[in-house]
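The protein record quoted in full:

***
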Amino acid sequence: MIATATSPEREALLALLRPLVLEIVKESRETLELLRITKGWTQQRLSMESGVCPRTISRIESGKGKANPATIVALARALGADYGRVAAACVRR
């Protein structure tokens, strides 16, 4: 339907769909919390394994804080995950 719509119709449809699509994408993305839970770990356990402060982990998971490169390396090593995967997961909330 979008492909055959005229330009104004297409723009109107896209404007309606964009928030829904963004929400679906946001929900389907891997997060640090998901990586941690997949291991069956609490924030405290991830903290002990990585050496990263539990408060920092909490702030990253809640989207209230950002992870610096050294933190991402520590989390990746502890989780046994690729640096890029953890870096991407740390910015998704």
